[in-house]
């Protein structure tokens, strides 16, 4: 137990990016668009942040924060592809998401080769510094984002409208809501948040961007959205659980009582839990009803 | 006037032809890749000479010829074709199989186990390993189909989860094998290998192997099941309209499960072909081989048909196989990944063609109406 308490800063470091990305995925699905490109968008955010940070870290102390904003902007820009394909063209949302995931690995390493002449970004000297009690500021960013998403989705008319677009877009449209505009906002928000998440990940957990930096964190975030039943508090709890599992897989060598288990046990855990809960909760409508379905304007 | 209507019909036909769209999407991908190479100040002719060398073995920069490159190209295409078939088969039933990667890993792991512990009888050993891989991959896909049919769990989420379960379980199980370190098992006995001295000699020592026939046979099986059997007909009907199929008395639940089993078996075979064809020892996977994910692109370009998937698999195999040659010509090899990614994105945009077609049809109807009013 003491081991676990000592691990709290590390756990929060791993949980934060997953949670930030998962909130984006949740908002996106709430508006009716599935975003399986979270993994790729995180990669783009991480690459951009690592590159910006390494280029300006010696010239400004605010470099880390500029890098996070740059990562967010990159995630937002690339998510426009997904938004345009799945909202304006009614394309299959899974295909355009897969395309972005494929493009992300190739595009980031290609740019790294051009900028740094190697298959990764140049390592930066200093990442983000931990604050109070060894906890990285990313944990507070994640907390703020969850609270803000809850407030916007459940306490503002805007959130009601956005959720309506994911439940019954035709009804929302007849009530005067611009469904396509709402869905654009949601997809771009998820791109922005995935970018932030990628940036937070690379600046706290490693010293450079490589092809393995994200390593499934985006897909864990996707799982957290389902396991968290598309609710802010559920997604937060799921991310905390999954992040802890990932942390245990990494740090279990330090824990005497767990050493008999292979680290793969903890790596598998999030995915098995998600699958089992999907089966257990099947038949009950937790998912936004129109999630994944293109919205075509009726009539004309 | 006559000329105009001919042009219009041609354009309509091109826009509604899957083949024409696939070809234009690939050309567009290559065009963007070329522009990108130019944009970063490299000479794109290096990219194309690398591709030419992969396809023909001809090295135009040195004027030499070595057929080994052709063998390596075909060898790189085999798992892509098989994973493409996996994706394509599920797609014909209206399912999106992102899980080829996991089914591939499960097949690879099963093949490695049979290779190390199976009966060392020439001719039988690798056959058993292939069979085990197909069964394992089929089971892995079947779970997804069953969950989808029985509990309406989204196959997209389920396959993504199972991809990671497969990956970590494979590492775990493989490392239990005695004599295994963190990246490899002991060597396979020669009876388990798919390598063929004849094919290898014909291609000047390339790693091309009996997997070639596995891939060709799989394409035939795919075509036969889809086009010539009752099961294939039912699966296609389910894919086109699930409710209509159910109304026609087709067992949709069973169809979804069997479709995913067959799809998984193709991907499982891909795992066996790579494990027993390209390697002489079992691997403890350190990362995804990504054949499953690239298989999605292969199937999309191949329009989910057997022949199309084979051609698209050869195309993406060429891109993968040309990577080291590109790198040696100062072209960042990742441009090939970018081309694959762009091709998939462009294909997702093909819905735009349908919108254009609809608009044109509407305009034509309006014109006709005007003319009849006159």
UniProtKB/TrEMBL annotation, chain A:
GO terms for cellular component: plasma membrane. Keywords: Cell membrane, Membrane, Transmembrane, Transmembrane helix. It comes from the Bacteria. Gene3D superfamilies: ABC transporter involved in vitamin B12 uptake, BtuC. It is found in: Cell membrane. InterPro entries: ABC_BtuC-like, ABC_transp_permease. The chain crosses the membrane at residues 6-24, 36-56, 62-87, 94-115, 135-154, 184-204, 210-228, 235-253, 265-283. It is a multi-pass membrane protein. GO terms for molecular function: transmembrane transporter activity. Pfam families: BPD_transp_2. This is Uncharacterized ABC transporter permease protein YufQ. It comes from uncultured Spirochaetota bacterium.
From TrEMBL, chain B:
Signal peptide: none annotated. It is found in: Cell membrane. GO terms for molecular function: transmembrane transporter activity. GO terms for cellular component: plasma membrane. The keyword Transmembrane applies. It is a multi-pass membrane protein. Pfam families: BPD_transp_2. Keywords: Cell membrane, Membrane, Transmembrane, Transmembrane helix. The chain crosses the membrane at residues 20-41, 73-91, 126-147, 153-174, 208-226, 256-279, 291-316, 336-357. This is ABC transporter permease. It comes from bioreactor metagenome.
